[in-house]
Every structure is written in structure tokens, then in C-alpha cells.
Amino acid sequence: MGLMDLCFTTLGLSFAVFILLFDYMKRRKRWNNYPPGPVSLPFIGNLLQINFQCPHVLSVKFGKIFSLQVGWKNVVLLNGLDAVKEALVQRSDDFADRPPFSLFDHLGYKKNCEGIMMARYGHGWKELRRFTLSTLRNFGLGKKSLDQRVTEEAGCLCSAFSSKDGHPFNPRFLINSAVGNVMCSLTFGNRFEYSNEKFLRMLHLIEEAFNIGAGIMSQVTLNMMPWLLYIPGPQHNIFQPYTDSFDILREIVKEHKETRDPAFTRDFIDAFLEEIEKAKMDPGSTFNENNLIFTVFDLFGAATETTTVTLCWALLYMLRYPDVQRRVSPRIPHSGCPCVFHEEIDKVIGRDRSPEIEDQVNLPYTNAVVYETQRYCDVVFAGVPRTTCRDTEVQGFFIPKDTIIIAVLSSVLKDETVWEKPHQFYPEHFLDADGQFVKREAFLPFSAGRRMCLGEQLARKELFLFFTTLLQHFTFHIPEDQPRPREDGHYILIHSPDSYELCAIPR
Ligand code: HEM
């Protein structure tokens, strides 16, 4: 071997040792009492050991609070009611941040212009969340109340189901259109026909963007290896549905600006434009036009998939558990079981008027079925990632600042120490001995604490009113010659049912 070769080999080896040492230092845990976890591999950490469908499976070995290494990022998973509640509720402030997400950095998200879902915890997020909550909650804006908008849409959804004349169909598309329309009504001031091309394209783009944002490529690969975005390749295609959605929203905002009457606020976009006007002199304000686009996009993304998928699960459970369906709405022939709850919808609401949100208190069984659907299908099964804003602790474990936190909601909704039948569909979880509805502390499908779901009230209304109106008008059957739909489904950020068909028979 020549001197030159020897030099290169020594240099190469030194470099390799340096890189391995650097990687080791990055992955080394220098804190006492940091949550335990599996041994991590150089550079990729525990990436190969993560079970994306059931992230809490390692808790069997490491306990309810355990750690993972994803690349050089420290991740801690919290499982079970006690750990999740202590972190998200009792130490709400410490766990209120979101991790940086390189996908969004490349889309132009920056301080005070990062929408609401992935916004870093701070003044901008607080201001925007307060504004969004009060604008959606006090929807005295425009001519119609929020309840009226949902009820009207539930009627349109029933007409669309009727048009299937009892033939088999997959309900997902119609439900998604109805749920999307409620958001359109709140944010743009009007609903669309389910066949409107612009509307369909927007729903399609949002779904595509949601799936991309939730996919392995953006969640893990681009976050771990953001340099991939600086070289050409198919990874750049992931931005298209986002930029196309932003273009559609930009056009809608432009129309609003042209037709806006400052004396009359029609919808969320008008209300936001008013805030932009007020904040004109403040260059650091969170109320700016790009942030309006990102916020509306977030609202659609957060609201449509979650609510649509939950309603699809609700109908799937009605097919799988006809006894439950019969108790909610009695027209399915049954074999002589006592009719304690059976006539609930017919008895309380009848046929001549639409269900209203006030009916909830008089429909304990129906309400329990909706709650149990959310518990059992655990749509957002691993929550949305959080980050610690400062050094903190949970259940005696030390968790340093900037740790990514996964509060596994599924482990709370199916916590074996809390629920009587955690792995069964059992509406009685939400009923007391007298058949009255009871709320449960471990019912956390919307998460908890500072960053908990902002749309809970709206989602609750939609789930109850859509479900009750559909059950008032139809009985649901599995189409002849089709198998009973499966209840395991698939997991990509949210837990969705595999596609299935049903027959909606008018009652
Ligand atoms: C069944 C329906 C829904 C479920 C299960 C659900 C669940 C969730 C969950 C688990 C989170 C993460 C909270 C956390 O980080 O701890 C979240 C956040 C969020 N949700 Fe929902 N959601 C639903 C419907 C909606 C609707 C209808 C809206 C729209 C109005 C909405 C808007 C949001 C927003 C904006 C956030 C981010 C909040 C923040 O970071 O401050 N969600 N949701």
C-alpha cells in the first residue's frame, strides 16, 4: 500500500469514527430517570422498531411511559389515562408546543404565519386560537346559526342517501361531502351541490394533502432527512396538493375581498379579513393573508377526515350490531326483545321534524352509541404530536425540553383499568343503571389540555345530528352477498374503515 493510500484509509477511518462518535453523542441520554426504551441503531434510531399501527405496543415491555429515538430526535410515548392526563391536563403548559415539521417550512410557514394546527406555542397561536374558537362558537355571523347549518346539511345528506333507492353504495363520498359542506358554509358562507366540480376538487385535494402529511414520507423521512428536499426527485411531488389547495383558497379569499361589506360579516373569512384590517399597522400580527389561507386549510383538514371517518365507523357498527341499531331506531324486525330503548328516536322526535341538538338529553341511548363509536374507533389513535416547551416530568420520569411527545389516545380510550369492555363495542359504557347518559373521564378522542381539538363542539353537533337524522330516516343493511364489514380498518395517522357498502332502506 502506498503512502497516499494509507493517508486516504486513515482519513476515511478517522472520518467514520468521528461520524459514529458524533451520532453516539447525539443519541446518548445524559439524564437520570429518562423513560426507558429499546436500544437504538446509529442514525436511524428505533425507526425499524416502531409499530405505526399500534404505537403503544412496546409499553408491554417498557411500561406506560417509554422513549424512542427517531433519527436524532427524542420521542416519548405516554400511555394510559393517568400518564396522559398528568401531562396534557396537569402540566398543560409544559406540553403545549408542536414539533417543527419541515414539510410546512418548505410551504412557506413561518412565525405568525403557520396556520393553527402546527403553530408553535406562543402569542401568535394563542391569538389565532382565541379568535377561531369565538368566531366558530358564536356563529351568529351570517344569517344562520351553526345548528341550523348542520341540520340543513343533514337533510341534504338524507336526500342523497334516498337517491340510491336502497341499492348498495359506499357512504364515504356522500358523508365527506356533507361534512365538507358544513365547513364551506362556516368559512365561505355557502354550501355546494355534491356534484359541484370545484367543491369535489377541493375535497379531493384536501384528502390527498392530509394523506401525504400523514404518510411515512413526510412524517419520518423528510423530517429526519430534510436535505432530501434540496435534491431533485419524486419527493417534491408531495407539495402539489397543498399548493393547489392554497390556490383555490386564495381565489375564494380574493372573491371575498371584492364583495365584502364591512358592516356585515358573512363567514369566517370575512371575520378574519376584518382582523387583518385592524392589524394593518402591526407587521408582526398573526392576522395576515397567508395565515388566513393556512388557517382555513387547517380547519378543513382537521375537520373533514376525522368527522367523515367517525360517521363511516358509526354506520359500519350499525351494520355489524343490528341489535344496537334496533335500540336506536326500532324498524328493523326483531325477535321479541323488550322495547326499553327501542323507540328512542321515534318516541322523542317522531317523523315530522328534524332532530335538534337539544334532543340529545332525551336520547341517552343514541347519545351513548355516538360516544361509544368515538371511543371504539379511536380515529386519531396516536393524537397529534406535541413537544415539551421546557424540562418537565411525568409520573416521576424526567422529560427534557424539545422532546417530541406522542400521547397515545387509543391507550386511554381502551385503557383496561378504566373501561368495562375496552375491546368491544358496548354503548353501555356511557349509561348508568337507570339508562341515563354518563360522561366518562377517559373519553378523550379530542385529546386534552391547551392544544386539545378546537372543533370539539362542532364535531359533537355534526356527529349527533347527522347520525340521528340518518337513523330517523333509514335502516341500514349489509348488501346481499357481501360479507359483514371488518372492524379492524387501517391506520395512516387516523384509523379508517376499509371501504364497504351498505343499503339504506327508507323507514
Ligand atoms: C370527530 C371529529 C374530530 C376528532 C376526533 C378530532 C380530534 C383532534 C385531536 C386528537 C387533535 C389534537 C389535539 C392535541 O394536540 O392534543 C385535534 C386538533 C385540532 N382539531 Fe380536531 N377533531 C375532530 C374534529 C374537528 C373539527 C370539526 C375541527 C374544526 C373546526 C377541528 C379542528 C382542530 C384544530 C384546529 C386542531 C388543532 C388545535 C391546536 O393545535 O390548537 N377538529 N383534533
From TrEMBL:
GO terms for biological process: arachidonate metabolic process; xenobiotic metabolic process. Heme binds at C453. The keyword Magnesium does not apply. PANTHER family: CYTOCHROME P450 2D6-RELATED (PTHR24300:SF1), CYTOCHROME P450 508A4-RELATED (PTHR24300). SUPFAM superfamilies: Cytochrome P450. Its cofactor is heme. Keywords: Heme, Iron, Membrane, Metal-binding, Monooxygenase, Oxidoreductase, Transmembrane, Transmembrane helix. The chain crosses the membrane at residues 6-25, 209-231, 292-319. Pfam families: p450. It is found in: Membrane. GO terms for molecular function: heme binding; iron ion binding; oxidoreductase activity, acting on paired donors, with incorporation or reduction of molecular oxygen, reduced flavin or flavoprotein as one donor, and incorporation of one atom of oxygen. Coiled coil: none annotated. GO terms for cellular component: cytoplasm; membrane. It comes from Chelydra serpentina (Snapping turtle). Its main location: membrane. Belongs to the cytochrome P450 family. It comes from the Eukaryota. This is Cytochrome P450.
